[in-house]
Design brief:
DUF3795 domain-containing protein; 2 domains; binds zinc ion; DUF3795; 116 residues; globular; 36% helix; mainly alpha
């Protein structure tokens, strides 16, 4: 049974500050693995998609569920273009930034279409 988002919502934020922010070795096996290989992200790894990243993608947490897709796309189109697409994806028509789990724009109130 997939883990429900509400369970994660109650966890302390410091559980995972994100791949680029947490520099503590041992706090994330995926991050440690990527760093040990001298890579910038998993998509560049010869073993991609390995069990570790596949399990993470499929762990039931909504914002983990696009990891494999994103890493493939990142490798395919390059970091600059990928970041441009993310900028577009995570912006409301009114230009306000939007994020995971937000059901409507905090600025204009327009409902946010989610794809998970
Ligand atoms: Zn808006």
């Amino acid at each position: 049974m997939p883990v429900r988002y509400n369970k994660y919502k109650e966890m302390p934020l410091q559980l995972c500050p994100g791949c680029k922010l947490d520099d503590q070795p041992g706090s994330c096996e995926i991050r440690d693995c990527v760093k040990s290989k001298g890579l910038n992200h998993c998509g560049a790894c010869r073993e991609f998609p390995c069990d570790k990243i596949t399990k993470f993608n499929n762990d039931g947490v909504p914002h983990h569920s696009e990891v494999l897709k994103n890493l493939r796309q990142l490798e395919e189109i390059g970091e600059d273009r990928w970041l441009e697409l993310q900028e577009e994806k995570w912006r409301c028509e009114c230009d306000a930034k939007i994020s995971w789990y937000v059901k409507k724009c905090l600025k204009c109130g327009k409902p946010i279409k989610t794809n998970y």
